[in-house]
Design brief:
The structure is a single chain. The protein has three domains: about 5-215, Rossmann fold (3-Layer(aba) Sandwich); about 230-315, Tyrosyl-Transfer RNA Synthetase (Orthogonal Bundle); about 330-400, RNA-binding S4 domain (Structural Genomics Hypothetical 15.5 Kd Protein In mrcA-pckA Intergenic Region, Chain A). About 45% of the residues lie in helices and about 15% in strands. With about 400 residues, the chain is an alpha/beta fold. A hairpin with a 2-residue loop joins β9 (about 365) and β10 (about 370). A six-stranded mixed sheet has the order 1-6-5-2-3-4, with helices on both faces. It has a five-stranded mixed sheet with strand order 7-13-12-9-10.
């Protein structure tokens, strides 16, 4: 087992906060496995690399011999986490929550070691609380304390609606820590209030309080905004290998080391060495980024897939050839075709309006030739069985249904 100092070096690599830091060393010095908690509300079915950041940190804890407690917030998802929200989050149905949870767990176990993971649902303890229990629990927190949260205080100052049940979210999350006797709880920087609420409730319950460990938000492929599907800058855990490889290769050099620390299984020592080599000029950024792309593809697919993904990337970007495996999609085409709508139907853009923007930006090509801006209607014969490209990585060949 690693020494306390070595473990602390791994634990603190890439993190934002460790509160209080001194307690971490004291807990590790006991030499007994710690219980590391992560609670997730299954509000969406598909994960991206940003969602995987805390899972990668959990895996580091597992590799050092500690126990991970992954809590599926099937009960708290009924409330909806208000963190970072300026409106009340829409409620999900039980069916939606269960379906999302199943998908989430399958993707989480691409990273976590199932044999070292305790999988729990917080409905186990929250659903059985009576009203008297809830009153006793709520009495441990003051309204003034809850309003210290930035999102609540801003909404209150702006006279925006705050539902009473939202005040109970940090209370419920805090009780999760009591229920499973957490030593450490992980979360994003926007979760620090909730994590500290768990620490406070454990202390008031006569328990040793947990340590709050927060992780920074991961920038998306643009290197600026946080990774999000709504920004279109995400790398999905279920993306095809070639698409995943290409997206990683598009990130700015400045965030490469952060991606290594937060998104790969490379050891902290190896990443430290890579960072030093980049800084000294001993390592070429393009080669380091290629390794990053290969490593991430191999994590979520396998090594052969990462090799093929790099070969596909080379064909498109080095040799300027189309990929070998362009998808052929059967569509019903009229004699006159509205191209932005066809691009959406082919899955090359998220909407017809995005299709128009891409055409106007010169980002749509037909058999390698850019299409004219402002021209959206095309004869079917010009498009059928032809190679259509959007941007650098998206290709399709429409066939008649």
């Amino acid at each position: 087992m690693l020494s306390v100092d070595e473990q602390l070096h791994v634990i603190t690599s890439g993190i934002a906060d460790l509160v209080p830091a001194a307690d971490m060393a004291r807990k590790l010095e006991r030499g007994t496995p710690l219980r590391i908690k992560l609670g997730v509300d299954p509000t969406a079915p598909d994960l991206h690399l940003g969602h995987a950041v805390p899972l990668r940190k959990l895996r580091q804890f597992q590799d050092m011999g500690h126990t991970v407690v992954l809590i599926i917030g099937d009960f708290t998802a009924l409330i909806g986490d208000p963190s970072g929200r300026n409106t009340t989050r829409p409620a999900l149905t039980r069916e939606q929550i269960d379906a999302n949870a199943e998908t989430y767990v399958a993707q989480a176990f691409k990273i976590l070691d199932p044999s070292k993971t305790e999988l729990r649902r917080n409905s186990e303890w929250l659903e059985t609380l009576g009203f008297a229990d809830l009153l006793r629990l709520a009495s441990q927190f003051t309204v003034a304390r809850i309003l210290e949260r930035d999102d609540f205080s801003k909404r209150y100052a702006e006279q925006k609606s705050i539902s009473l049940h939202e005040f109970l979210y940090p209370v419920a999350q805090a009780y999760d820590s009591v229920a499973i006797s957490a030593d450490v709880e992980l979360g994003g920087t926007d979760q620090l209030f909730n994590l500290l609420a768990g620490r406070e409730l454990m202390e008031k319950s006569g328990m040793e309080p947990q340590i709050a460990l927060t992780l920074p938000l991961l920038e998306g492929t643009d290197g600026v905004q946080k990774m999000s599907k709504s920004y279109g800058n995400y790398v999905g855990l279920t993306d095809e290998p070639a698409d995943m490889f290409g997206k990683i290769m598009s990130i700015p050099d400045e965030v490469m080391v952060k991606y290594y620390r937060l998104c790969t299984a490379l050891t902290v020592g190896a990443i430290d060495k890579l960072e030093a080599e980049l800084a000294s000029g001993a390592a070429h950024p393009n080669e380091v980024k290629r390794r990053l792309a290969r490593d991430i593809v191999a994590l979520y697919h396998d090594v052969p897939a990462s090799v093929l993904a790099e070969e596909s990337f080379n064909r498109v970007f080095k040799d300027h050839q189309a990929p070998e495996d362009v998808k052929q999609i059967a569509v019903a085409l009229d004699d006159s075709v509205y191209l932005p709508g066809l691009l959406h139907e082919l899955g090359l853009v998220a909407s017809a309006s995005e299709g128009r923007r891409m055409i106007d930006q010169g980002a749509v090509k037909l058999n390698g030739e850019p299409l004219d801006a402002g021209l959206y209607m095309y004869a079917r014969s010009l498009l059928l069985d032809q190679l259509i490209q959007v941007g650098k990585r998206r290709y399709a060949r429409p066939t008649q249904a």
